[in-house]
Fold:
Amino acid sequence: MRPVINLLSHFASKRNKSITILVSTTGDTGPAAVHAVKDANNPLLSILVHYPHGQISEFQRKQLTTCDSRYVKIVSFDGGGDDMDQPIKDTLLMNTGRDSSSGRTYCGINSYNIGRPLVQMVHFIWIYLRTAEQLGYKLGDKGNFSSFFLIIHMT
Structure:
């Protein structure tokens, strides 16, 4: 999550435009995003996280609700874990990503956002290459490098 948030922070600063990230979480995405936004400490970047009341662990709830940052807002809601996905999508579509009166841009970083899986794929490949290097695989060797594609296919 941190690379995605860092990119958003970079573009907010570069364009001098406020970005509000909208998230619905049942556990891991929210706390990771919250702490990445807190660490970015960019006044142009804020996050609004929704979580289903009583449906996340106490540890995850504390990760969300004890983050001390003026750029982070946390809200619980009644319902299931996926119940906020559609309202967030509708908000993004209704505003076409922008609130023209404030110049604020809205974006979502749930699983429906392509940026998240792209960063995860790059991270997976980077980890594989570092692990292969540590194990002494010759990455230029076609036989060893092809095992990389076999591992990806199996997962």
